[in-house]
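User: My collaborator sent over this chain with a note saying "see what the structure looks like." That's all I know about it. Can you take a look?
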Amino acid sequence: MARYAESTQVSSDRSRSEIEKTLARYGADQFLYGWDRQAAVIGFRMQARMIRFRLPLPDRTAREFTHTPGRGQKRSEEQVDAAWEQACRQRWRALALVVKAKLEAVECGISTFEEEFLAWTMLPDGSTVGDRMLPQLETAYRTGQMPPLLPWNE
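Assistant: Without extra context I'll predict from the sequence alone. Here is the result:
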């Protein structure tokens, strides 16, 4: 299946800038960006909530970048860089699409800000609601047991 924007020529920097401008247009009053080898992070404040998205970045040493898809021949360093950069551009375009779609859904009244951004809402300890709830959700479905209402009653 084809990936969204898999052959985009829009740079990662331009997509990040587009996200920042989109957030400002919809009312964000803070924005941050950072990265390491594994992921890029964007964060913003909107409607008195701190939101953080983690964008996993591809592993530059993965075979999909170091070898050709058809015959499995080793690529040159320049080819590896080009293939890896393309994968990064694709991910940034997808994130820009997600952010825009969520904000527009809120703007049109399809859903609320909290519904769209709940999983990425930051908690006081720096984790997100998704970080806390996803393991509990998995356990609830696996065991058929609801998680405790109060976490200190475990």
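A starting point for your reply to your collaborator: Helices lie at 12-25, 63-66, 77-107, 113-117, 129-143.
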